[in-house]
Amino acid sequence: MVQGTDPETGKFVRSPFHFTDRITADGADGWPVEPGRYRLVVSRACPWASRALVVRRLLGLEAALPVAVADPIQDEKSWRFTLDPGDVDPVLGIRYLAEAYAKADPTYDGGISVPAIVDVPSGKVVTNDVPRITLDLETEWTAHQRPGAPDLYPEPLRDEIDAVNARVYADVNAAVYEAGFATTQSAYDDAYRRLFTCLDELSERLADRRYLVGDTITEADIRLFTTLVRFDPVYHGHFKCNRHKLAELPVLWAYARDLFQTPGFGDTVDFDHIKRHYYVVHGNVNPTGIVPNGPVLAEWATPHGREELGGRPFGDGAPPGPPPPAEVLPPQW
Ligand SMILES: N[C@@H](CCC(=O)N[C@@H](CS)C(=O)NCC(=O)O)C(=O)O
């Protein structure tokens, strides 16, 4: 089935990725890494797309892989470029991301999801393969990364990162959606239980270590961060993930603030896009479309105290500089 809630079980099921070509240094799939050739299409509302935004910032790939930011409010044709002059993406010349999907495969009739990477010369979507996109930015785009870029997927730690990612995907990243979109009590109960069991385990794991794997920021932290940063503004209320707020889980709250305050993380987060997307677009979950005023966001800037745990955030590298002027977000509180 396509992405949606299974009427039999009430369980939310994701559709498989349709566009899985890879952009690689050797161009094996016909898509060689080339600065300026591709466009990363995101919504800043979306946790899966936001992974790519964080990785792109940490690695300094902003110029090599320019970004198109879709309106957080989709219409019936999905993601659209209504934030741009004339409602058209200035580089791709299209109004809807769906046009790039159709160019790549005119028979495709599945969902139109972000993140997606589009080949600018042909206008075709190359990939919407979420887990692969960030791993390839880390391992295939190395020639264009900034001096001092961190190694977010260090070879000796890959098995451990992959294992943590698999668990976090199933029981955190995807589980919040499964709780929120469940249409039977048992499907909701199951997702809720898995989510909070996993968050408790992650709290334990992170109590005495600054990052999930090794002593530096890795892909694993990025994947957990983009769910945690949406937790209190959206998942706690809208998706009924309400055993606790993130702010009531001391270890994870400090961990999330530590990352938020690290250059490349918080400067990609647009709480206005996040809140308006979920509360307005999911009419089945929130029929009034009212966007809540809370929570207070200024607490994201409060001291987290996790420097005491040691760790070397960027390993042998260094933090990124500020975002390019066109990508600087308005004050968030
Ligand atoms: N579909 C991917 C993740 C990407 C995704 O679901 N993105 C959302 C926004 S957060 C989207 O674009 N949804 C529209 C759709 O799938 O039609 C997955 O199953 O892991």
UniProtKB/TrEMBL annotation:
Select a single GO molecular function from the record's annotations and give it.
Answer: glutathione transferase activity
Q: Where is this region: Disordered?
A: 307-333
Where is it found, in Gene Ontology cellular component terms?
A: cytoplasm
Keywords, ordered alphabetically: Transferase
Leader sequence segment: none
Q: Where is the GST C-terminal domain?
A: 154-281
User: Which segments show compositional bias classed as Pro residues?
Assistant: 319-333
The annotated site for Lowers pKa of active site Cys falls at: 235, 278
Q: What is an example of a Pfam family matching this protein?
A: GST_C_2
Binding residue positions for glutathione: 79
**InterPro entries xref list:** Glutathione-S-Trfase_C-like, Glutathione-S-Trfase_C_sf, Glutathione_S-Trfase, GST_Omega-like_C, GST_Omega/GSH, Thioredoxin-like_sf
What residues form the catalytic site here?
A: 46, 177
Cited PANTHER family = GLUTATHIONE S-TRANSFERASE OMEGA-LIKE 1-RELATED (PTHR32419:SF6), GLUTATHIONYL-HYDROQUINONE REDUCTASE (PTHR32419)
Q: What is this protein called?
A: Putative glutathione S-transferase
Organism (species): Amycolatopsis arida
